[in-house]
């Protein structure tokens, strides 16, 4: 057989190259963050309300959630309904409170998220089968990204940094739907401290070496120690408060926190009883603004149409579970079911992890760089009315970041909705 003419060979080569490039782009799209046109949430009016009583008690679990099939039967909320659900209350550090009504613009340009209607029955449990949680006990890892974005809320929940001084958490960690929790009046956020080298004769983060200390440091350190111990600064025991070597060694391994006061808290009206008509779980999120920004890297928000359609379909989150006090717990799992506002999964978790930021990792558009973004807030164990007939099933549930919720949270963080037009 003689040589193939270039005029015949060239179209074949081009066709193969184009087909390969198209296939590569299709695969690449599955691993790339989608770009969303999001609506604009704008402040309409703010009025002062009476100060809350701060009399509510923390909830162990939420019941009455309208599940997948239940939500499918509900009418699509009108613009007026959405504006009422997205209006919000702000509670300030001094205990005062305001209510802000909002307007929503550009709603028709937002693409609806996909729904999935399959269901399964589950026994009541928060750890499914083998416990697959990982304890991040080494500070070398727990104080490094992405674990360092996880924070502890003084009411007993977890949260995630979404800006230099804003924390995203679950609304039920602050408010039970009727009133604010009794611990929310003096709300604080704890950031894991990096390991200090003080006492080893060398300089390092958190220490100046050779026992040198700036004027005024003693009082500051005493305050931090009291906060790390829950306010108990007394040392009881032999030797005038001195601890044994083994006890000091054991305590040095425990994580310690830098606590920062919360300046203000914002919660969507959709979380309040009697407003969302069974959809309160969809609005189980809140944003806390800190008085002082910790020097810790934060994680951006992201929006995806479906978690189950992603490669592996896995989600990740870290929190401070109650059954392993003082330790940062990491886990990942696959999402089993999803609706337009909730993610139903069997991620092993315990109370204390509520409010954790649920994230995944995808490529930045047009780049080869991978980036983690928060796509939801872990709400916790819930009883769900799956079929709308009153029969309750239990799941571990997360609230997903939709374009609408992205617009609202972004507005809370930036104070300017013009910075929140694309997710």
From TrEMBL:
It comes from the Eukaryota. Pfam families: Trypsin. Residues 1-21 form the signal peptide. It is found in: Secreted. Residues 228-237 have a biased composition (Basic and acidic residues). Residues 143-185 form the Peptidase S1 domain. Keywords: Glycoprotein, Hydrolase, Protease, Secreted, Serine protease homolog, Signal. Belongs to the peptidase S1 family. Gene3D superfamilies: Trypsin-like serine proteases. The keyword Amino-acid biosynthesis does not apply. Residues 195-217, 238-247 have a biased composition (Basic residues). GO terms for molecular function: serine-type endopeptidase activity. Residues 191-260 are annotated as: Disordered. This is Inactive serine protease 35. It comes from Scophthalmus maximus. The keyword Secreted applies. GO terms for biological process: proteolysis. InterPro entries: Glutamyl_endopeptidase, Peptidase_S1_PA, Peptidase_S1_PA_chymotrypsin, Trypsin_dom, TRYPSIN_HIS. The lineage of its organism: Eukaryota, Metazoa, Chordata, Craniata, Vertebrata. GO terms for cellular component: extracellular region.
